[in-house]
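Side project, low priority. Logging it here so it doesn't get lost.
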Amino acid sequence: MPIEIDTKLTPRTLEPKIERLFELSAAKILSLEKTWKPADGTPVFTVKGRYTSRGWTEWTQGFQFGSALLQFDAAGDERFLEIGRRGTVERMATHVSHTGVHDHGFNNISTYGNLLRLMREGKIPANDREREFYELALTVSGAVQASRWTKLADGTGFIHSFNGPHSLFVDTIRSLRSLAVAHQLGHVLMGEQDKRISLLRRLVEHALNTARYNVYYGDGRDAYDVRGRVAHEAIFNTASGVFRCPNSQQGWSPFSTWTRGLAWAILGFAEQLEFLRGCARKSAADLAPLVDQAEVGRVLTNAATATAEFYLAHCCADGIPMWDTDAPNLHRLPDGYLDRPANPFNAWEPVDSSAAAIAAQGLIRLGNYLLAISKPLPPAKLPRGTGAARKFLASQGRRYRQAALTIANTLFAEPYLSTSPKHQGLILHSVYHRPNGWDYVAPGQKVPNGESSLWGDYHTRELALLLLREARGEPYLKFFLS
């Protein structure tokens, strides 16, 4: 396995690096707030160290203001609470009612969701009117997201991407957060003739179909079926509801694995497992008439562990992946390049630090989930073989946690941590859309490096906050309501 897992790392040992990261983060957020002109659109990625826009869909606005809220959570500086709160109120309303994207869980949980969480945790003062405002936004967002529904031949369905009703993106597994929170707040999607459509059911069906069609398990599905490989997009015949083929918008090919899509799968499946377990009593009652909850847990756990293992086997020794596991010029890299730390300055193919940040959080959450379900429940007498199974789950959980800490240890330091005050990005060597050639390539370079993305910066802050809270003994960071 290429990654060299450091078994001695703990959130506490990483705390000095995390505190330095948030010190640098503060200046980056303030710089962007000072220089960004809303008329320019939404900041997406940096060019020569300055954030720029790139019109495709406005899926990163929530990361802009959400980053400020994470900064406030970590450091307690109310300037960032004000930036996050003001930006949410002034700029996020159109994202709540946006019917054309699959990104509600990115935009609205990062803003309205973080604000509601901070209030429920007592980190900001309780205010009924303010709370009701956040809750209304989140309920509407979840229903709007659930309305992008494509029905399949077996009667289930999925939330289709902005590409159209034929398109199931692996990214959307993390956008299910919007349906989860809206369901918890008691909301449903109202259809024709006042039909009440369960958001929880749509969440589960989408997750199961992502696991079925976007993730491979080495069972001979096609000639490129390797366990844990992920297809960015699954294509369906919308007339019949039948699966047709894999595809990729941002990866090298339909039969390779775009590593940010792989990372979305690891994190998305892990978060939904946490959600379904964390709300076990309520979700069990809600799910009982709809699906077999034990089967849902089995399928999502299988998808999460398959993708986690594939990531760990295909990243470099320090946990950083190339942008695609089968990118066309990887054969030009030195033999054994996966067995050494990633080289973001190589001449042939870029790495993707944003994929590493997303995957690391997913591995932490998956590890915690496996450790939690490995604990025996009373009565202590268990069926034969259960003890061995629990030991295996616990060992896997610890391994995933340590792998995540190893990745975090890499990301929270140079050459990935951006220390220059002239650079607005926090984490360097992120890639947006390699096939479209959107990423900036500096003079003298053949491939992009040295730049940042808003999602990479946000998810690094989220990863750092998750670990910082654990180091400080604070409540576990989660998107759903407890």
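Brief comment: The two ends are 37 Å apart (CA to CA).
Revisit when time allows.
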